[in-house]
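Give me structure tokens for this 557-residue protein.
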Amino acid sequence: MQGTGTLSLLQNKKEYSEAEKITLDYFFTNLDKNIYALKPTLSFCLGAFLVGQYSRSHLSMRDRFLYLFDEMKKAAETGKIAKEDYISIDDFANELVKKGDTFQKLAYFEKRANSFLKQYGVDYGHASLKDADVIRFAIEGVSQLSTNVIEMPDPELGSYEEKSTRYIQFSKSSIIIPPRLKDSKYYERIKQNNDTLMESYEKNSSIVLEFLKQEVYDETKFKSKAAFERTAAAKTFDIMRYWLPQGLATSLGAIWQTRIIETHISQMLSHPLEELRIIGEALKEEGVKLSPGLLTHVSPNKYFGETTLDMYESFKDFSYERYFPIDYFKRVKLIRHTDDLENLLLASMLYEFSEASFETLYNKSKTLTESERDNIFEKYLAKRGEYDLMMKALKVGSFTFEFLIDIGAWRDVKRQRVGTILKQDITASLGYAYPEFLENTKELKTVKDEYDSLMLETPRLYEEVKSEFPFEAQYIPAMGHCTRFLYEFHPRQAQYVIELRTKSGGHHSYRTLFQDVFREVEKVIPRLAKYIKVDWKDSIEGRKNAEEKTAAKRGEK
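Here you go.
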């Protein structure tokens, strides 16, 4: 451990002046760790802005906050704001010192509140009190692998924003290899494999970018050169992320209710991976600073920790299988759905507007004619606006899917806060997927050949390491390797996730995944599918339109 709360060096990019230290200390719980929380002194609006910056900025959240003072100075110099509205970091710090920390003067009230919350929220078990307390964390310098746990609490409630593989160039200097692997005989081979993946990522990025500019995008059809360049760059990163290993360091913002933090940290403290236990300790340390009454008591969960290890050990030989390549297995498999789902939904749609029992309405639904069924669905759904959810009667019933997709697509899908996900461990043993354009494009044949070689060589190392380090071996696979998970959701959640993940500006992999999900839902209940606004538009045009809007807003030419 580096003394930073993670396995990475401190993510800050600069030494802080005294004024900067005073300012940061007023808004954040520490200045010298990679995991910290946002104090109540920082508004929720500004906090949301800083969390949102993770996807497009290399800066830590603290450094991005300080950069606001530079932006304000430029705005004053260019006349965007009045000069008297500008305040320097030195003046701001002086004001804090002069006035003192107002929140310190409320120490009695804070102590009284924490005593009450501990007594009723912890000692007496009134869990609803924990829902009223929210903590915002900056989690920096953690591996891609660790986010599979960080962003998946139980229950599935939370808000996350992670560094984007679409807008940020990654380098091999930021790859994490955990201590157990560093101290093992495999270290040099793991490091070499990571270096080879990242060197190929960097080298082939320019080849792919040139291909896109020459063969895919026509600059004359763009409204600005900036939009053309941004579109090609974003698509390049979408393709090249398949090379990135799971040990790659990332940063994210996470917002949780204290009820979620309590159980989530407890399970992290009990996790088989050392990195997760370290992150759990750091989250607890910072969380206690803001909510001691509810979080001081959090400790490892014996049930979770011991059961996890028992299950791995007792059933490790059950149904082990490999697929090379992904084409031999359907990416989307509908495992089951609620029987007689259409009649169930018809009765549910009528229920809130009736005095009849559900059983009566359900039996009545079975006797409806085709036109009567159409009419109910139309009345209930036809007036839905572009961003409206379907009304809540569509939360009855469920679909259960099994997915086998590239880890990069899983990285995006796992942040969904609808439905229930059961995830298998990250592996390199289930084959790999091809990024868009790579498989059948003669101009990229050399890139494809190199990619194939890496995707086939990495599993050999993975299998060897796994035999001795079954948990730590998960740091080795690349995002192009495949992973499997179970996803269950009700019909309204199906509508939400299909519409969200098929938007034409999204990544090709998860777009086509949820287009396939739509096709399966349509087979089961076509009357509902008629009102799901799945996006079939070409992803090339969608990415172009999105970047043109961004360029226009920024005044780029």
